[in-house]
Sequence to fold (546 residues):
Amino acid sequence: MNALLRNAMTNENHQILTAALVAAGPLALIGFGLLPEAMLNQNGIRAARIGATISLATLGLACLAAISLGFNGLVDVQLTVVSAFKLGVYFDNLSACLLVLIAFLLAVIARYSVNYLAGDPAQGRFTKWLCLTGGSVLSIVISGNLVQFALAWCATSLSLHQLLVFYPERPGALLAARKKFILSRLGDAGLLMAIVLVYKVFHTWDFSVLFNATRHLHETGFIMDGGEVNLICFLLVAVAMLKSAQFPFHSWLPDTMETPTPVSALMHAGIINAGGYLIIRLNPLVTLSPAAMSTLALFGAFTALFASLVMLTHASVKRSLAFSTVAQMGFMMLECGLGAFGLAVLHLVAHSLYKAHAFLSSGSIVSMAKSAWTPTGKPIAHPLTFVAAFGTAGLMALGSAWFFGVDYRHEPALFVLGCTFAMALAYALWNLWSQLLDFKMAVFGVVFGGGIVAVYFALHKIFGQLIGQSEWVNSQLNTWTGMVLLVTLLALFLLVLVVQTELPVWTNRPLFQVIYVHARNGFYFNTLANRLVTAVWPIKVIRNKK
Fold:
Protein backbone atom coordinates (compact mmCIF):
# COMPACT_ATOMS: atom_id res chain seq x y z
CA MET A 1 0.00 0.00 0.00
CA ASN A 2 2.82 2.40 0.90
CA ALA A 3 4.60 1.63 -2.37
CA LEU A 4 1.44 2.36 -4.37
CA LEU A 5 0.95 5.61 -2.46
CA ARG A 6 4.56 6.66 -3.12
CA ASN A 7 4.20 5.84 -6.82
CA ALA A 8 1.00 7.88 -7.04
CA MET A 9 2.65 10.84 -5.30
CA THR A 10 5.71 10.55 -7.57
CA ASN A 11 3.53 10.51 -10.69
CA GLU A 12 1.57 13.51 -9.42
CA ASN A 13 4.80 15.39 -8.78
CA HIS A 14 6.01 14.59 -12.28
CA GLN A 15 2.72 15.82 -13.71
CA ILE A 16 2.91 19.11 -11.80
CA LEU A 17 6.59 19.64 -12.65
CA THR A 18 6.05 19.00 -16.36
CA ALA A 19 2.95 21.22 -16.39
CA ALA A 20 5.02 23.98 -14.78
CA LEU A 21 7.72 23.63 -17.44
CA VAL A 22 5.09 23.75 -20.17
CA ALA A 23 3.28 26.80 -18.82
CA ALA A 24 6.32 28.84 -17.72
CA GLY A 25 7.31 29.95 -21.23
CA PRO A 26 3.91 31.19 -22.43
CA LEU A 27 3.28 32.92 -19.08
CA ALA A 28 6.66 34.68 -19.25
CA LEU A 29 5.97 35.89 -22.79
CA ILE A 30 2.49 37.10 -21.90
CA GLY A 31 3.77 38.77 -18.72
CA PHE A 32 6.44 40.66 -20.66
CA GLY A 33 3.90 41.60 -23.31
CA LEU A 34 1.63 43.14 -20.67
CA LEU A 35 4.26 45.75 -19.71
CA PRO A 36 3.35 49.34 -20.64
CA GLU A 37 4.05 50.26 -24.23
CA ALA A 38 5.63 53.60 -23.31
CA MET A 39 8.16 51.91 -21.04
CA LEU A 40 9.20 49.42 -23.73
CA ASN A 41 9.53 52.15 -26.35
CA GLN A 42 11.99 54.09 -24.20
CA ASN A 43 14.68 51.61 -25.19
CA GLY A 44 13.28 49.54 -28.03
CA ILE A 45 16.47 47.62 -28.81
CA ARG A 46 16.82 46.48 -25.18
CA ALA A 47 13.15 45.45 -25.07
CA ALA A 48 13.64 43.46 -28.29
CA ARG A 49 16.69 41.70 -26.85
CA ILE A 50 14.82 40.82 -23.66
CA GLY A 51 11.92 39.48 -25.73
CA ALA A 52 14.35 37.39 -27.79
CA THR A 53 15.95 36.03 -24.60
CA ILE A 54 12.57 35.07 -23.14
CA SER A 55 11.67 33.37 -26.43
CA LEU A 56 14.92 31.38 -26.37
CA ALA A 57 14.29 30.40 -22.75
CA THR A 58 10.79 29.28 -23.75
CA LEU A 59 12.33 27.00 -26.35
CA GLY A 60 14.60 25.49 -23.72
CA LEU A 61 11.69 24.88 -21.35
CA ALA A 62 9.65 23.34 -24.17
CA CYS A 63 12.48 20.90 -24.93
CA LEU A 64 12.77 19.94 -21.26
CA ALA A 65 9.00 19.41 -21.07
CA ALA A 66 9.11 17.20 -24.18
CA ILE A 67 11.89 15.10 -22.62
CA SER A 68 9.90 14.79 -19.40
CA LEU A 69 6.86 13.70 -21.40
CA GLY A 70 8.93 10.95 -23.01
CA PHE A 71 9.75 9.50 -19.61
CA ASN A 72 6.47 10.07 -17.76
CA GLY A 73 3.71 10.07 -20.38
CA LEU A 74 0.59 12.20 -20.79
CA VAL A 75 0.23 15.26 -18.55
CA ASP A 76 -3.30 16.35 -17.61
CA VAL A 77 -3.39 18.88 -14.78
CA GLN A 78 -6.59 20.82 -14.09
CA LEU A 79 -7.23 23.59 -11.57
CA THR A 80 -10.87 24.49 -10.93
CA VAL A 81 -11.46 28.25 -10.95
CA VAL A 82 -15.24 28.54 -10.76
CA SER A 83 -17.88 25.86 -11.27
CA ALA A 84 -17.21 24.06 -14.59
CA PHE A 85 -14.45 26.45 -15.69
CA LYS A 86 -10.91 25.19 -15.16
CA LEU A 87 -7.40 26.25 -16.05
CA GLY A 88 -5.06 23.44 -16.88
CA VAL A 89 -2.49 21.82 -19.12
CA TYR A 90 -3.14 18.94 -21.50
CA PHE A 91 0.27 17.88 -22.80
CA ASP A 92 0.67 14.87 -25.06
CA ASN A 93 2.92 14.00 -28.01
CA LEU A 94 1.00 16.28 -30.37
CA SER A 95 1.26 19.20 -27.92
CA ALA A 96 4.98 18.54 -27.36
CA CYS A 97 5.73 18.45 -31.09
CA LEU A 98 3.98 21.74 -31.80
CA LEU A 99 5.16 23.44 -28.59
CA VAL A 100 8.80 22.85 -29.53
CA LEU A 101 8.12 23.85 -33.15
CA ILE A 102 6.37 27.13 -32.30
CA ALA A 103 8.87 28.01 -29.57
CA PHE A 104 11.73 27.44 -32.03
CA LEU A 105 10.11 29.61 -34.71
CA LEU A 106 9.32 32.34 -32.18
CA ALA A 107 12.93 32.34 -30.90
CA VAL A 108 14.27 32.73 -34.46
CA ILE A 109 11.74 35.41 -35.41
CA ALA A 110 12.28 37.38 -32.18
CA ARG A 111 16.04 37.34 -32.67
CA TYR A 112 15.62 38.37 -36.32
CA SER A 113 13.40 41.27 -35.21
CA VAL A 114 16.10 42.77 -32.98
CA ASN A 115 18.12 43.97 -35.98
CA TYR A 116 15.24 44.18 -38.45
CA LEU A 117 13.47 46.94 -36.47
CA ALA A 118 16.57 48.49 -34.90
CA GLY A 119 16.12 52.27 -34.81
CA ASP A 120 12.34 52.18 -35.21
CA PRO A 121 10.79 54.37 -32.48
CA ALA A 122 7.98 51.82 -32.06
CA GLN A 123 10.24 48.77 -31.70
CA GLY A 124 9.17 48.34 -28.07
CA ARG A 125 5.52 48.25 -29.11
CA PHE A 126 6.32 45.67 -31.76
CA THR A 127 8.12 43.46 -29.24
CA LYS A 128 5.21 43.77 -26.82
CA TRP A 129 2.66 42.46 -29.31
CA LEU A 130 5.05 39.87 -30.73
CA CYS A 131 5.49 38.35 -27.25
CA LEU A 132 1.75 38.50 -26.55
CA THR A 133 0.97 36.82 -29.88
CA GLY A 134 3.61 34.14 -29.38
CA GLY A 135 2.49 33.44 -25.82
CA SER A 136 -1.13 33.17 -26.94
CA VAL A 137 -0.28 30.71 -29.74
CA LEU A 138 1.66 28.54 -27.29
CA SER A 139 -1.30 28.70 -24.90
CA ILE A 140 -3.54 27.24 -27.61
CA VAL A 141 -1.26 24.21 -27.88
CA ILE A 142 -1.17 23.44 -24.14
CA SER A 143 -4.79 24.28 -23.24
CA GLY A 144 -6.45 21.69 -21.05
CA ASN A 145 -10.05 22.38 -22.07
CA LEU A 146 -12.15 23.96 -24.78
CA VAL A 147 -12.89 27.21 -22.92
CA GLN A 148 -9.22 27.84 -22.24
CA PHE A 149 -8.51 26.93 -25.87
CA ALA A 150 -11.09 29.48 -27.07
CA LEU A 151 -9.69 32.25 -24.85
CA ALA A 152 -6.16 31.66 -26.17
CA TRP A 153 -7.59 31.46 -29.71
CA CYS A 154 -9.23 34.90 -29.38
CA ALA A 155 -6.17 36.40 -27.66
CA THR A 156 -3.98 35.25 -30.56
CA SER A 157 -6.24 36.92 -33.11
CA LEU A 158 -6.50 40.20 -31.19
CA SER A 159 -2.75 40.37 -30.57
CA LEU A 160 -1.99 39.60 -34.21
CA HIS A 161 -4.32 42.43 -35.25
CA GLN A 162 -2.04 44.92 -33.48
CA LEU A 163 0.93 43.60 -35.45
CA LEU A 164 -0.99 43.79 -38.73
CA VAL A 165 -1.70 47.49 -38.13
CA PHE A 166 1.82 48.25 -36.92
CA TYR A 167 2.00 50.82 -39.72
CA PRO A 168 -1.45 52.48 -39.45
CA GLU A 169 -0.57 55.06 -42.09
CA ARG A 170 -0.68 52.35 -44.78
CA PRO A 171 -4.21 51.89 -46.22
CA GLY A 172 -3.37 48.44 -47.54
CA ALA A 173 -2.32 47.26 -44.08
CA LEU A 174 -5.52 48.58 -42.52
CA LEU A 175 -7.72 46.96 -45.16
CA ALA A 176 -6.07 43.56 -44.81
CA ALA A 177 -6.19 43.73 -41.01
CA ARG A 178 -9.87 44.62 -41.04
CA LYS A 179 -10.72 41.78 -43.40
CA LYS A 180 -8.86 39.45 -41.06
CA PHE A 181 -10.59 40.98 -38.01
CA ILE A 182 -14.10 40.50 -39.39
CA LEU A 183 -13.47 36.91 -40.45
CA SER A 184 -11.83 36.13 -37.12
CA ARG A 185 -14.83 37.42 -35.19
CA LEU A 186 -17.08 35.18 -37.30
CA GLY A 187 -14.77 32.30 -36.43
CA ASP A 188 -14.89 33.21 -32.74
CA ALA A 189 -18.68 33.21 -32.84
CA GLY A 190 -18.68 29.75 -34.46
CA LEU A 191 -16.23 28.43 -31.87
CA LEU A 192 -18.37 29.85 -29.04
CA MET A 193 -21.46 28.12 -30.43
CA ALA A 194 -19.50 24.88 -30.74
CA ILE A 195 -18.26 24.85 -27.14
CA VAL A 196 -21.76 25.64 -25.84
CA LEU A 197 -23.14 22.67 -27.79
CA VAL A 198 -20.25 20.46 -26.64
CA TYR A 199 -21.16 21.12 -23.01
CA LYS A 200 -24.84 20.51 -23.74
CA VAL A 201 -24.14 17.14 -25.39
CA PHE A 202 -21.10 15.86 -23.45
CA HIS A 203 -21.44 17.85 -20.19
CA THR A 204 -17.74 18.69 -20.15
CA TRP A 205 -15.10 20.91 -21.70
CA ASP A 206 -12.07 18.95 -20.51
CA PHE A 207 -10.17 17.37 -23.38
CA SER A 208 -9.45 14.10 -21.58
CA VAL A 209 -13.09 13.55 -20.60
CA LEU A 210 -14.32 14.66 -24.03
CA PHE A 211 -11.97 12.29 -25.84
CA ASN A 212 -13.06 9.36 -23.67
CA ALA A 213 -16.72 10.15 -24.39
CA THR A 214 -16.19 10.39 -28.16
CA ARG A 215 -14.13 7.18 -28.10
CA HIS A 216 -17.08 5.42 -26.49
CA LEU A 217 -19.41 6.74 -29.21
CA HIS A 218 -17.05 5.48 -31.91
CA GLU A 219 -16.82 2.04 -30.34
CA THR A 220 -20.56 1.61 -29.78
CA GLY A 221 -21.60 3.27 -33.04
CA PHE A 222 -24.48 4.93 -31.19
CA ILE A 223 -24.57 8.73 -31.19
CA MET A 224 -27.11 10.46 -28.99
CA ASP A 225 -28.24 13.85 -30.27
CA GLY A 226 -26.73 13.07 -33.66
CA GLY A 227 -28.05 16.30 -35.15
CA GLU A 228 -26.28 18.39 -32.53
CA VAL A 229 -23.06 16.39 -32.92
CA ASN A 230 -23.15 17.02 -36.68
CA LEU A 231 -23.73 20.70 -36.04
CA ILE A 232 -20.75 20.82 -33.68
CA CYS A 233 -18.53 19.19 -36.30
CA PHE A 234 -19.68 21.50 -39.08
CA LEU A 235 -19.09 24.52 -36.83
CA LEU A 236 -15.55 23.33 -36.06
CA VAL A 237 -14.91 22.80 -39.78
CA ALA A 238 -16.18 26.32 -40.55
CA VAL A 239 -13.99 27.81 -37.80
CA ALA A 240 -10.94 25.98 -39.15
CA MET A 241 -11.65 27.22 -42.67
CA LEU A 242 -11.98 30.82 -41.50
CA LYS A 243 -8.77 30.63 -39.47
CA SER A 244 -6.71 28.95 -42.21
CA ALA A 245 -7.73 31.25 -45.09
CA GLN A 246 -9.70 28.69 -47.05
CA PHE A 247 -11.65 29.64 -50.16
CA PRO A 248 -13.65 31.91 -50.25
CA PHE A 249 -12.24 33.42 -47.01
CA HIS A 250 -8.67 33.57 -48.29
CA SER A 251 -8.24 37.09 -49.66
CA TRP A 252 -6.97 38.69 -46.44
CA LEU A 253 -3.82 36.59 -46.26
CA PRO A 254 -2.09 37.69 -49.52
CA ASP A 255 -2.88 41.32 -48.64
CA THR A 256 -1.01 41.28 -45.31
CA MET A 257 2.25 42.22 -46.98
CA GLU A 258 2.33 45.73 -45.52
CA THR A 259 3.42 44.38 -42.14
CA PRO A 260 7.06 43.89 -41.07
CA THR A 261 8.58 40.69 -42.46
CA PRO A 262 8.85 39.00 -39.01
CA VAL A 263 5.06 39.28 -38.71
CA SER A 264 4.63 37.57 -42.08
CA ALA A 265 6.96 34.79 -40.97
CA LEU A 266 5.11 34.30 -37.67
CA MET A 267 1.71 34.40 -39.31
CA HIS A 268 2.46 32.13 -42.28
CA ALA A 269 4.64 29.69 -40.34
CA GLY A 270 2.67 29.50 -37.10
CA ILE A 271 -0.66 31.22 -36.62
CA ILE A 272 -2.21 30.17 -39.93
CA ASN A 273 -1.77 26.53 -38.83
CA ALA A 274 -4.21 27.02 -35.94
CA GLY A 275 -7.15 25.85 -38.07
CA GLY A 276 -5.39 22.60 -38.90
CA TYR A 277 -4.40 22.13 -35.26
CA LEU A 278 -8.04 22.60 -34.20
CA ILE A 279 -9.16 19.71 -36.41
CA ILE A 280 -6.20 17.49 -35.48
CA ARG A 281 -6.62 18.16 -31.76
CA LEU A 282 -10.35 17.43 -31.85
CA ASN A 283 -10.19 14.63 -34.42
CA PRO A 284 -12.00 12.11 -32.13
CA LEU A 285 -14.94 14.54 -32.12
CA VAL A 286 -14.83 15.77 -35.73
CA THR A 287 -14.67 12.24 -37.14
CA LEU A 288 -18.12 11.58 -35.66
CA SER A 289 -19.47 13.47 -38.68
CA PRO A 290 -18.26 12.00 -42.01
CA ALA A 291 -20.26 14.66 -43.86
CA ALA A 292 -18.32 17.45 -42.13
CA MET A 293 -15.04 15.68 -42.89
CA SER A 294 -15.91 15.29 -46.58
CA THR A 295 -16.94 18.94 -46.79
CA LEU A 296 -13.59 19.95 -45.33
CA ALA A 297 -11.76 17.72 -47.82
CA LEU A 298 -13.60 19.23 -50.80
CA PHE A 299 -13.03 22.84 -49.77
CA GLY A 300 -9.42 22.08 -48.91
CA ALA A 301 -8.74 20.46 -52.28
CA PHE A 302 -10.39 23.31 -54.19
CA THR A 303 -8.46 25.90 -52.16
CA ALA A 304 -5.18 24.11 -52.86
CA LEU A 305 -5.81 24.01 -56.61
CA PHE A 306 -7.20 27.54 -56.83
CA ALA A 307 -4.36 29.15 -54.87
CA SER A 308 -1.63 27.17 -56.62
CA LEU A 309 -2.83 28.38 -60.02
CA VAL A 310 -3.14 32.01 -58.87
CA MET A 311 0.32 31.80 -57.27
CA LEU A 312 1.93 31.09 -60.66
CA THR A 313 0.78 34.45 -62.02
CA HIS A 314 2.45 36.65 -59.38
CA ALA A 315 5.93 38.11 -59.75
CA SER A 316 6.03 39.55 -56.21
CA VAL A 317 8.00 37.15 -54.00
CA LYS A 318 6.05 37.75 -50.80
CA ARG A 319 2.65 37.71 -52.49
CA SER A 320 3.53 34.50 -54.29
CA LEU A 321 4.59 33.02 -50.93
CA ALA A 322 1.26 34.13 -49.46
CA PHE A 323 -0.75 32.28 -52.11
CA SER A 324 1.57 29.33 -51.58
CA THR A 325 0.52 29.36 -47.92
CA VAL A 326 -3.15 29.38 -48.90
CA ALA A 327 -2.54 26.39 -51.16
CA GLN A 328 -0.60 24.53 -48.46
CA MET A 329 -3.34 25.16 -45.90
CA GLY A 330 -5.86 23.85 -48.40
CA PHE A 331 -3.85 20.66 -48.81
CA MET A 332 -3.61 20.31 -45.03
CA MET A 333 -7.38 20.66 -44.75
CA LEU A 334 -7.68 17.97 -47.42
CA GLU A 335 -5.49 15.66 -45.34
CA CYS A 336 -7.56 16.35 -42.24
CA GLY A 337 -10.82 15.83 -44.14
CA LEU A 338 -9.59 12.46 -45.40
CA GLY A 339 -8.56 11.45 -41.88
CA ALA A 340 -4.80 11.37 -42.53
CA PHE A 341 -3.97 13.25 -39.34
CA GLY A 342 -0.39 11.94 -39.12
CA LEU A 343 0.36 13.33 -42.56
CA ALA A 344 -1.37 16.59 -41.62
CA VAL A 345 1.01 17.02 -38.66
CA LEU A 346 3.98 16.22 -40.89
CA HIS A 347 2.73 18.78 -43.40
CA LEU A 348 2.23 21.35 -40.64
CA VAL A 349 5.78 20.95 -39.31
CA ALA A 350 7.45 20.93 -42.74
CA HIS A 351 5.45 23.89 -44.03
CA SER A 352 6.12 25.97 -40.90
CA LEU A 353 9.88 25.51 -41.09
CA TYR A 354 9.99 26.12 -44.84
CA LYS A 355 7.75 29.18 -44.82
CA ALA A 356 9.52 30.86 -41.89
CA HIS A 357 12.82 30.49 -43.76
CA ALA A 358 11.25 31.64 -47.02
CA PHE A 359 9.91 34.90 -45.55
CA LEU A 360 12.95 35.71 -43.43
CA SER A 361 15.21 35.19 -46.46
CA SER A 362 12.87 36.74 -49.03
CA GLY A 363 15.06 39.85 -49.29
CA SER A 364 17.92 37.80 -50.70
CA ILE A 365 15.85 35.69 -53.08
CA VAL A 366 17.14 37.48 -56.17
CA SER A 367 20.78 36.70 -55.42
CA MET A 368 19.84 33.14 -54.46
CA ALA A 369 18.01 32.67 -57.77
CA LYS A 370 21.00 33.96 -59.71
CA SER A 371 23.35 31.50 -58.02
CA ALA A 372 21.00 28.52 -58.40
CA TRP A 373 20.61 26.31 -61.47
CA THR A 374 17.38 26.85 -63.36
CA PRO A 375 16.15 25.24 -66.57
CA THR A 376 16.94 27.23 -69.70
CA GLY A 377 14.33 27.61 -72.36
CA LYS A 378 10.96 25.91 -72.49
CA PRO A 379 10.75 22.22 -71.65
CA ILE A 380 9.82 19.96 -74.53
CA ALA A 381 6.36 18.63 -73.69
CA HIS A 382 6.97 15.21 -75.22
CA PRO A 383 4.19 12.73 -74.39
CA LEU A 384 6.60 9.77 -73.97
CA THR A 385 8.68 11.71 -71.45
CA PHE A 386 5.56 12.49 -69.47
CA VAL A 387 4.38 8.87 -69.59
CA ALA A 388 7.81 7.64 -68.44
CA ALA A 389 7.90 10.14 -65.57
CA PHE A 390 4.35 9.32 -64.49
CA GLY A 391 4.97 5.55 -64.66
CA THR A 392 8.22 5.82 -62.69
CA ALA A 393 6.62 7.94 -59.99
CA GLY A 394 3.67 5.55 -59.73
CA LEU A 395 5.92 2.51 -59.34
CA MET A 396 7.92 4.32 -56.66
CA ALA A 397 4.79 5.18 -54.72
CA LEU A 398 3.48 1.61 -54.90
CA GLY A 399 6.84 0.08 -54.00
CA SER A 400 7.42 2.37 -51.02
CA ALA A 401 3.87 1.82 -49.78
CA TRP A 402 4.40 -1.95 -49.93
CA PHE A 403 7.76 -1.68 -48.14
CA PHE A 404 6.32 0.39 -45.28
CA GLY A 405 3.19 -1.74 -44.96
CA VAL A 406 0.66 0.77 -46.29
CA ASP A 407 -2.43 -1.03 -47.59
CA TYR A 408 -4.12 1.25 -50.08
CA ARG A 409 -7.14 -1.08 -50.29
CA HIS A 410 -8.07 -0.41 -46.66
CA GLU A 411 -6.76 3.15 -46.47
CA PRO A 412 -8.47 5.13 -49.24
CA ALA A 413 -7.27 8.44 -47.81
CA LEU A 414 -3.64 7.39 -48.15
CA PHE A 415 -4.37 6.13 -51.66
CA VAL A 416 -5.52 9.60 -52.74
CA LEU A 417 -2.63 11.34 -51.02
CA GLY A 418 -0.15 8.79 -52.37
CA CYS A 419 -1.44 9.34 -55.91
CA THR A 420 -1.22 13.10 -55.44
CA PHE A 421 2.35 12.80 -54.21
CA ALA A 422 3.17 10.56 -57.20
CA MET A 423 1.76 13.24 -59.53
CA ALA A 424 3.98 15.88 -57.95
CA LEU A 425 6.98 13.61 -58.28
CA ALA A 426 6.05 12.83 -61.90
CA TYR A 427 6.02 16.55 -62.68
CA ALA A 428 9.48 16.98 -61.12
CA LEU A 429 10.87 14.03 -63.09
CA TRP A 430 9.26 15.26 -66.31
CA ASN A 431 10.74 18.72 -65.83
CA LEU A 432 14.19 17.23 -65.18
CA TRP A 433 14.15 14.73 -68.03
CA SER A 434 12.76 17.26 -70.53
CA GLN A 435 15.86 19.40 -69.97
CA LEU A 436 18.65 16.84 -69.69
CA LEU A 437 17.60 13.40 -70.81
CA ASP A 438 20.61 11.11 -70.63
CA PHE A 439 21.53 8.01 -68.69
CA LYS A 440 22.96 9.88 -65.71
CA MET A 441 19.94 12.13 -65.37
CA ALA A 442 17.60 9.16 -65.68
CA VAL A 443 19.42 7.30 -62.91
CA PHE A 444 19.60 10.44 -60.76
CA GLY A 445 15.86 11.03 -61.15
CA VAL A 446 15.00 7.47 -60.16
CA VAL A 447 17.33 7.45 -57.13
CA PHE A 448 16.30 10.93 -55.97
CA GLY A 449 12.61 10.26 -56.51
CA GLY A 450 12.78 6.91 -54.76
CA GLY A 451 14.49 8.51 -51.79
CA ILE A 452 11.86 11.25 -51.56
CA VAL A 453 8.98 8.75 -51.67
CA ALA A 454 10.67 6.52 -49.06
CA VAL A 455 11.18 9.48 -46.73
CA TYR A 456 7.55 10.51 -47.24
CA PHE A 457 6.15 7.14 -46.16
CA ALA A 458 8.70 6.75 -43.35
CA LEU A 459 7.75 10.14 -41.89
CA HIS A 460 4.08 9.22 -42.26
CA LYS A 461 4.71 6.21 -40.03
CA ILE A 462 6.80 8.20 -37.54
CA PHE A 463 4.36 11.07 -37.16
CA GLY A 464 1.39 8.73 -37.06
CA GLN A 465 2.93 6.94 -34.09
CA LEU A 466 4.18 10.17 -32.54
CA ILE A 467 0.73 11.69 -32.18
CA GLY A 468 -1.02 8.38 -31.54
CA GLN A 469 -2.57 8.21 -35.00
CA SER A 470 -6.32 8.12 -34.59
CA GLU A 471 -8.06 4.94 -35.62
CA TRP A 472 -11.12 7.03 -36.32
CA VAL A 473 -11.13 8.24 -39.92
CA ASN A 474 -13.65 9.51 -42.45
CA SER A 475 -15.93 6.46 -42.67
CA GLN A 476 -17.76 7.96 -45.65
CA LEU A 477 -14.77 7.16 -47.86
CA ASN A 478 -15.79 3.48 -47.87
CA THR A 479 -19.22 4.25 -49.38
CA TRP A 480 -20.14 4.99 -52.98
CA THR A 481 -20.39 8.73 -52.22
CA GLY A 482 -16.90 8.54 -50.75
CA MET A 483 -15.64 6.84 -53.89
CA VAL A 484 -17.13 9.65 -55.98
CA LEU A 485 -15.35 12.15 -53.70
CA LEU A 486 -12.01 10.37 -54.10
CA VAL A 487 -12.32 10.11 -57.89
CA THR A 488 -13.25 13.81 -58.07
CA LEU A 489 -10.21 14.78 -56.01
CA LEU A 490 -7.86 12.70 -58.14
CA ALA A 491 -9.35 14.10 -61.35
CA LEU A 492 -8.82 17.68 -60.13
CA PHE A 493 -5.19 17.08 -59.20
CA LEU A 494 -4.56 15.27 -62.48
CA LEU A 495 -6.05 18.23 -64.35
CA VAL A 496 -3.66 20.61 -62.62
CA LEU A 497 -0.75 18.31 -63.44
CA VAL A 498 -1.67 18.33 -67.13
CA VAL A 499 -2.04 22.12 -67.08
CA GLN A 500 1.41 22.53 -65.52
CA THR A 501 3.09 20.22 -68.02
CA GLU A 502 1.44 21.89 -71.02
CA LEU A 503 1.82 25.42 -69.69
CA PRO A 504 4.81 26.36 -71.90
CA VAL A 505 2.87 25.30 -75.01
CA TRP A 506 -0.22 27.32 -74.14
CA THR A 507 1.41 30.64 -73.26
CA ASN A 508 0.77 32.23 -76.66
CA ARG A 509 -2.83 31.10 -77.01
CA PRO A 510 -5.47 33.87 -76.66
CA LEU A 511 -7.70 31.87 -74.29
CA PHE A 512 -4.80 31.16 -71.96
CA GLN A 513 -3.82 34.83 -71.91
CA VAL A 514 -7.36 35.81 -70.95
CA ILE A 515 -7.40 33.25 -68.14
CA TYR A 516 -3.97 34.44 -67.01
CA VAL A 517 -5.23 38.01 -66.55
CA HIS A 518 -8.20 36.84 -64.48
CA ALA A 519 -5.97 34.54 -62.40
CA ARG A 520 -3.52 37.41 -61.86
CA ASN A 521 -6.40 39.27 -60.21
CA GLY A 522 -7.41 36.26 -58.12
CA PHE A 523 -10.59 35.93 -60.20
CA TYR A 524 -11.72 39.14 -58.44
CA PHE A 525 -12.67 37.54 -55.12
CA ASN A 526 -10.22 39.89 -53.45
CA THR A 527 -11.84 42.92 -55.09
CA LEU A 528 -15.27 41.83 -53.94
CA ALA A 529 -14.03 41.27 -50.37
CA ASN A 530 -12.36 44.71 -50.32
CA ARG A 531 -15.59 46.41 -51.39
CA LEU A 532 -17.62 44.60 -48.77
CA VAL A 533 -15.19 45.47 -45.99
CA THR A 534 -14.84 49.14 -46.94
CA ALA A 535 -18.63 49.43 -47.14
CA VAL A 536 -18.97 48.10 -43.59
CA TRP A 537 -15.79 49.62 -42.14
CA PRO A 538 -14.48 52.60 -44.19
CA ILE A 539 -10.73 53.19 -44.18
CA LYS A 540 -9.57 56.36 -42.45
CA VAL A 541 -5.80 56.48 -42.47
CA ILE A 542 -4.22 57.41 -39.14
CA ARG A 543 -0.92 59.21 -39.41
CA ASN A 544 1.61 57.40 -37.27
CA LYS A 545 3.18 59.73 -34.73
CA LYS A 546 6.53 58.26 -33.88
Summary: The longest strand covers residues 75-82. The mean pLDDT is 80.
